[in-house]
Specification:
Elements lengths: L15 E7 L2 E6 L9 E6 L2 E5 L5 H14 L4 E5 L5 H4 L4 H5 L4 E5 H35 L2 H22 L8 E3 L3 E4 L4 E5 L11 E4 L4 E5 L14 H12 L5 E4 L7 H23 L4 H16 L12 H16 L1
Parallel strand pairs: 4-5, 5-6, 6-7, 11-12
Antiparallel strand pairs: 1-2, 2-3, 3-4, 8-9, 9-10, 10-11
The structure holds zinc ion.
Length: about 325
């Protein structure tokens, strides 16, 4: 990356659309990427800045730091991690390096999950990278001309990611709270909340009551949720508690800034899916039968709203994974 230092950070596939959601509050909405990046919320306050979540790699967080410096000269004082998944905290190390004294904040459950599971997953990524690169090379060698450009790009991104994840210096949270934590600044109140289990055991929500903005992490996203570490049976009730808060703008973990109508759709999907799996499982149906029946039953309502990102995150594959996880938990 030294070669390109004069051009600023090497963005790779990390591209963000920075949108103002209130005075001094922005959402950096990540474009679809080969190595998925989460969104970042940027919250300016009287003497500093809070950022929420740091993407899948340090180079992506450096893109945000550069954009941030165009928005404000204030230093980042707080980095919040909404949960322990790699694409939300692998960029953490960038902030204390760029802003000495920056604190990284999450709740106890999430910090523990980072220590027990997140650190191990970094090693899994390091170990898995050569096989991924070999597979892309083989695909490229066998590819039709129309596929070559995409595969060449994916291969470059996989190699760049391997270099980054191998060199990662995981920066764990320096502050962990129990249930809630509130920052009272002169001009802003920032609440960090735990509303129950959903996408993970410890999901953190960031709520600005005065500006009516909430940041949800992956408990609410713009495509079909990932439930692999989640609690499908608790999820909708957690979103019920979220819905009781007063807000107009939602900065989600992935996808564009949303309104309350999307929360309603997403919550209804989770509730309908879980209830249908429970009902079908009680009849003794197999996983294959349940998946087939639910796809037919839910597609008319949910396929279109959950297909905004098309082939990047296809709804039917997401639903099948959700059904499998839920089926295993209710069975
Ligand atoms: Zn996640």
């Amino acid at each position: 990356m030294d070669c390109c230092a004069h051009e600023g950070p090497d963005a790779g596939d990390a591209r963000f659309d920075v949108k103002k959601v209130a005075d001094g509050v922005w959402a950096a909405v990540a474009a679809p990427a080969y190595k998925v990046n989460c969104n970042t919320a940027i919250i300016e306050h009287d003497d500093g800045v809070m950022v929420v979540d740091t993407h899948s790699k340090p180079s992506a967080a450096r893109v945000i730091v550069k954009r941030l410096r165009e928005l404000t000269s204030k230093p980042v004082r707080y980095v919040v991690n909404t949960h322990f998944h790699w694409d939300h905290w692998h960029g953490n190390e960038v902030y204390p390096a760029a802003y000495p004294g920056a604190e990284i904040v999450t709740n106890q459950i999430t910090r523990e999950a980072m220590v027990r599971r997140g650190l191990k997953r970094i090693q899994d990524h390091v170990r898995g990278a050569p096989a991924e690169i070999a597979r892309l090379r083989a695909d490229l060698a066998a590819a039709a001309p129309a596929q070559r450009a995409r595969l060449e790009r994916d291969l470059r991104l996989a190699e760049a990611y391997q270099a980054e994840v191998t060199a990662l210096k995981p920066a764990l949270p320096t502050i962990a709270f129990e249930r809630t934590m509130t920052l009272y600044r002169r001009d802003r109140e920032i609440q960090l909340l735990h509303l129950g289990r959903a996408h993970t055991e410890g999901d953190v929500f960031v709520y600005l009551p005065r500006e009516k903005v909430v940041v949800t992490g992956d408990a609410l996203i713009g495509w079909t949720p990932y439930m692999g570490d989640g609690y499908p049976e608790d999820w909708a009730a957690t979103l019920d508690r979220l819905a009781r808060l007063d807000f107009t703008h939602i900065v989600m973990g992935h996808g564009d800034v949303a309104d309350r109508a999307w929360l309603d759709t997403f919550r209804a999907y989770v509730r309908d899916m879980v209830e249908a799996v429970r009902r079908e499982a009680a009849t003794g149906a197999t996983l294959g039968e349940v998946t087939q029946r639910l796809t037919a039953a839910l597609a008319p309502t949910y396929e279109k709203p959950f297909s905004v990102y098309g082939e990047y995150r296809p709804w039917r594959a997401g639903l099948a994974a959700n059904v499998e996880r839920t089926f295993a938990m209710v069975g």
